[in-house]
Fold:
Amino acid sequence: MLAYNNQGFSQEITILHSNDMHSHLNGDAPSFEYSPLTPGNDKTTGGFSRIASIIKNTKASTNHPVLTVDAGDFSMGTFFHVLEENTGFQLKLMHQMGYDYVAIGNHEFDFGPESLGTSIVASSGSAKIPQLLLSNAKFNKAPEDNQLEDLFKQGVISKYAIENIQGIRVGLFALMGEDAENVAPNASPVRFKNQIRTAKQISRFLKRKKQCDLVICLSHGGVYPSDEKTCQGEDIDLAKNVRHLDVVIGGHTHSELKEPYIINGKPIVQAASFGKRIGKLTLKRESGFWAVKDYTLITVDDAIRGDADIQKMIDTQKKLLAESLPDSIRKNLNQPVVHFPYALTFKEYGDPTSSNLGPLIADAIHYYCNKTPEGADISMVAAGMIRTQYKAGDYSIEDIFRCVSLGKGNDNLPGFALSRVYVSGKELKGIMEVLRMAHKSSNANYIYFSGITAQVDMSKGFLKKIQDISIHDREGNVHQVSFSKNDTTLYSIVADSYMLKFIGLLKDMTFGIVNVKPKHANGLLVENMFDCVIDMDPEREGIQEGKQWLALLSLFDSMPQHTTSNVPVLSSAYRNSHSIYLESDQ
Structure:
């Protein structure tokens, strides 16, 4: 059963919930069509002003308590996140929208704990923000997490919260999930305690010591629908193993649960991503127990008129954002720059091999970096770096940026810098062997390549399956790679700087079996990865960093224009997915 209480009268509570909003303040693509104050004239979904209207209308039309919560990854994903460290705008906006509690997810740590702490201070220092929750973080003496730790001491971030609302005592806490922790390396030196153990301790404390009627976990762990009726994932384990927990409101996996998934009487809910859906869960308590009375997954589209005051705040922030971008980007920010005649698909928690968007990004990086004198033999992008997918239609620079929006370099443009390292043929084989298997632990590790093909014999043993590697140079020639340790030929690998750090860790990951030492073109070992950042325009002062989203724009510019819209049309070559691994018939 859901909760313990001996009161005999009936009570109800409604919980509005979102997750993985990723700074999609102006909705999902195509952004140039978005007109939230005029219903019925665009095809966009999401948008914070529309969500604000849902929250306001729900509270106005409901005669019982309403709580509004978010299960984490509220930030990182659009140009809006660029200014968060300086302005802390989004949390202030979410308070104005009506959010009561917000969990901290893995992407809040993308720029590190110092940056997260700075953005929260910028938010809370000048206005009210929702109560932030994170229950399983642990700190050490390293100075990098001191500011974040101070925010816990000040109560800006809490391990739990208790709210008495119209006779119902509600306890809430939030967890960073295990998979979320694994894909948040920039959270260091912050670490995270065991999720199940933490949930047991806090829920027992809230239920027994604090006498809460209802205990809610905002879990940035998530579920994966296996089929129409069953789910699997970390939130299932929570519901099975944590006795005093009543409701799990999930995030991280971007799953759209149209109905609550009930485990041991505990409802698990999740509302897709990017603000495209808002969950509305109504619980009713009778004879001392809670049950789900109603659940609706509200579609946030242009049938909903946005809140004018919230949209005004967003528009003001967008003007400030535009001023921070280069003229070439700002002038075309809201204009179509490419037409996709077919869908480009990618599902972060689906089958990564079925994506046609991943190969497109890899090819874009390859085309872009081969415009430099040094060029690129092999270009790569990890599935975990891809943040969205596209329907057929026209898209703007904003929309393209959202696809590969993670990270920052050392310039004023968002996105990890593209970098280049060199390896021998023997080392390249080891890299390819490991990368071929890496996605079995997490789909985020699946790699899309350009400029290379590999023959694979699945009958061979561990790290012996790749039989042949061929490099396709920019003139169209094919070169077979020698695996001999005596061959000193070096091959260049281009990827974002975050991914290339992985190559130097292969020795530890494979217990010494695969030892790769990234090098410069002259064969000297790489000491500092920043020295490998590609300068896209050596004639200009400083380093002009390449970005994955700029690579996409560069590739699109090379394609023929549409006869009526005067924007490039994506080639039909990417209509279907493809793999660089060619399996042997033996």
